[in-house]
């Protein structure tokens, strides 16, 4: 992936010197895994965060020193975000609309959000529709490789693009429509809606990848796409649950299986057409 020297978005909030008050006690690794499964790659942060005991409510300044690796990751994230701005700005313009760009908040440990409670690093990256911001602890890049086996620079780029996919859904009204169904459906039925929502964000990440070389100054190869599919597979519900508990419970899936996540990312990449990504009409997901 060629990104060095690429345009930066400048739309980054660096909050690594800020911490969202007290840290949560999650009841050991099981609690952490549950939260990761619930939030990884764009869940609804307000739901579980506000249910947890010891929910931090204050933000305090802290001394911090950025490492060369973090500096590189921050520059990388900034370039990736700029590339999503370029791609989606072009697509929206082609459809006679303007594209309101999201902000990427980079933080350590905890960060207050505008409407989604207080985010924690253990949740993984997430998008908050209340303030239209993406929240990312740069340490997650190490987890992608060491914990989930998703290697290659493009893995993190896919993660960011997936969260931007949720931003696209917010602009299209999909997130609000999905959320409105929560009170009308059983947990099992709503889980299916959640899966469709997450898979569409994967599809949008694929659409972004399709247009990268033509619309941005970032260049990728098919090997990068394979890294993206590896990352999508690594965060499939079946893989995460089997890794955590030794077995998977399909009724509790909220993000889709590894195979489904790879399929929809690949479909977006191969088509580049936002009109063929309606996961909500896919009979295989009903």
Question: Any overview of this molecule?
Answer:
The chain is of the alpha/beta class and 286 residues long. Helix content is 50%, strand content 9%. The protein has ten helices and eight strands. It has helices at residues 29-39, 45-49, 68-94, 140-146, 153-172, 174-180, 187-215, 222-234, 237-245, 258-271, and strands at 12-15, 18-19, 60-61, 103-107, 110-112, 118-120, 126-128, 133-136. The strands form three sheets. Strands 1-4-8-7 form a four-stranded mixed beta sheet, with helices on one face. The chain has a two-stranded antiparallel ribbon with strand order 2-3. A hairpin with a 5-residue loop joins strand 5 (110-112) and strand 6. Helix 7 (187-215) packs parallel to helix 10. The termini are far apart.
List keywords for this structure.
alpha/beta, four-stranded mixed β-sheet, globular
Topology overview:
Blueprint: E1 12-15, E2 18-19, H1 29-39, H2 45-49, E3 60-61, H3 68-94, E4 103-107, E5 110-112, E6 118-120, E7 126-128, E8 133-136, H4 140-146, H5 153-172, H6 174-180, H7 187-215, H8 222-234, H9 237-245, H10 258-271
Helix content: 40-55%
Kindly state the number of beta strands. Answer: 8
Order of helices and strands: EEHHEHEEEEEHHHHHHH
On the 0-100 scale, what is the average pLDDT?
Answer: 86
Question: Which strand order do you get reading across the main beta sheet?
Answer: 1-4-8-7
Counting copies of identical and different chains, the oligomeric state is: single chain
Q: Biggest sheet, open or closed, and with what strands and sense?
A: 4 strands, mixed
Rg from alpha-carbon coordinates: 18 Å
